[in-house]
Amino acid sequence: MHDLKARTIRGGLARVCAQAAGFILKVGSFMILARLLNPRDFGLVGMVTAFSGVLGLFRDFGLSTAAVQRKSVTDEQMSTLFWINLFLGTAVGLILLTMAPAIAAFYHEPQLVAVAAVLALAFPCNAAGIQHATLLQREMRFTALAVINVVSSTVGVAIAIYGAKAGYGYWALVWMGVAPAIVTTIALWLITDWVPKLPRWGTEIRNLIHFGVGTTFTSLLVYAGYNADKIMIGRFWGTDAIGIYGRAFQLVGIPNENLTSAVGEVAFSALSRLQDDPVRFRRYFLKGLSLVLGVMVPIAVVCALFADDVVFVILGPKWKEAVMIVRLLAPTIVIFALFNPLGWLVFSLGLVRRGVQIGPVLAALMIAGYAVALPYGSTAVAFAFSTVLTLWVIPHIWFCVRGTMVSVRDVLGVLIRPFGSAVVAGGVAFGARVIFGHFFSPFPRLVLESAALFAAFFGVLLLAAGERSLYFDLLSGLWKPSSAASPNER
Asked: What is the distance between the terminal CA atoms of the chain, rounded to a whole angstrom?
């Protein structure tokens, strides 16, 4: 574990590079598909994914997280977990297939029966590769995981664009949801060269299942809190409304989805190996949080100040109703950049019960906010989403860090530097728009606004806020020689 820092930095770089490629790919697909398809196409698929997303939380019952968090896992235990995952993935797929008529009746859209039936295929396909991905993550082979993610995403996007251009409508989006699962699992089996053995039950497996149940229950409640808005809008306002709201929500979610998932895999693996070293654990966590916020805060400011240009450039002119929704949801980019790392902290320390306690409170507050706002339309729901999360920030931080080696002051101390830098940078960028914006069309104007904001932000952050040492430390870690991993580190 003496070279954990260098391996963590390299693994993080590999994942971030892959997610950068994924970000470009996803934004490119947004730009193309939003112009080839209409809000109703996205709305139909979004109606099903609101339900399939819930079921997706049960595809491995948190067992992959449990396997990564454990200090050591035997080959027999990994094999048993594989068969459990495969059973659960198949069962979840069959449940979605069975639910298809009810989903169609709920939304009054008969086409959803076939959509749900095809999307159900993704569950057993994903389940067959979960433990292979876990094995790579435990070995910190993040470059291999990165390559697989990029290749599978590229295949999915290519199929979707071809289908949209060929006139298949929403089916292009359906197959984009299934194809990556198939490609990913095939690639994982080929790269790991690990074949599971017959299952063997024991005390350790039961302990892993107990951990997995806790993380799954937490994820279920949090998912319900974050996604009930889409179900409610789809049911009461129809396909066009959920198509526009869902696309705006996805657009705002791209940065966190790409970066925090990339950094999160590496950070969770590293923090899980530092459970017994509180000083290093605290230092690693705060550095990871600083990096995530350093990227997410300026992106949130861009979405808040220049949502009109962001929507026009990425989605196109027919999506102008999404502008206000993007602007209202922009603060959640920063909030999730705080909440996701706190999740790494809680689960890497094995504090599963804490997640189970916080989940119902957060879900209840979010759903109550949606219910109050729903009669006033999707824009009001977006306002409720951001407002409730903003009011919940301090209680959430306190609940997650209490009794750990990290304090509320630590977290707020990390936040204040990028937040202060963003205030200055936002003023500079907005000034550039006022002075020069009328000379440009939306795309070059967005480039100007973003360039001014990021230049000012990182200038203040590195020179005035004292963050230079963090980034220089990362660069030096990239060049530090890494010793070979011990065979016992699996």
From this structure: 12
Mind listing the pLDDT tens digit for each residue in 298-350? 999 999 999 999 999 998 888 989 999 999 999 999 999 999 889 888 878 87
Residue of 88, 35, 100 lying closest to 61 (CA atoms): 88
- Helix, strand, coil % in the chain, rounded to nearest 5: 85, 0, 15
The domain limits of the chain are 4-482
Residue 72: is its pLDDT beyond 60?
yes
Three-class secondary structure of residue 271 per DSSP: helix
In 3D, which of 67, 93, 96, 95 has the Cα closest to residue 82?
67
CA distances to 331, 335, 337, 338 from 393, rounded to whole Å, are 11, 7, 11, 8
Residue matched to tokens 């009328």: 438
Instruction: Say if CB 307 and CB 330 are below 8 A apart.
Output: yes
Q: Which residue has the tokens 């990021």?
A: 454
Q: List C-alpha distances in Å: 251 to 107, 180, 200.
A: 24, 20, 44
Tokens 């970000």 correspond to 23
Q: 310 or 195, which is more confident?
A: 310
Neighbours of 206 (CB within 10 A): 10
Rg (CA), the chain: 22
Is the pLDDT confidence value at 52 over 70?
yes
φ/ψ (deg, to 5) at 202 = -170, 180
Query: Taking Cα atoms as reference points, which of 231, 225, 171 lies closest to residue 45?
Result: 171
